[in-house]
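If you are new to this repository, start here. Below is one unmodified record pulled from the training split, so you can see the exact layout before writing a loader.
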Amino acid sequence: MTMAGKAVIRLNDTTDHGGKVITALEGYVYQGVPIAAQGDLVSCPKCEGVFPIVDGSPDLKHQGKPVALEGMSGCIRLTAMIIL
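And here is the target side for that same chain:
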């Protein structure tokens, strides 16, 4: 699933810092994998921690939560980008 040419982020997708998405929305899946939204958690080994996804699509929401898209930040320092 894409929005504005960017793929939706799902549970276990990776970041460019070697981390991965570790929480996602319950009951909202794409191809059998839960979709992540703003506020879901991402591990970041480079920044040494677990941080919330800070971005979300203003146009694609589930139960009021903006869905995370490819390239959005998954690190509090805004340096790690979520990739597929």
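Two things worth knowing about this chain: The domain at 1-84 is CATH 2.60.200.60 (Tumour Suppressor Smad4). Residues 25 and 36 are 6 Å apart (CA to CA).
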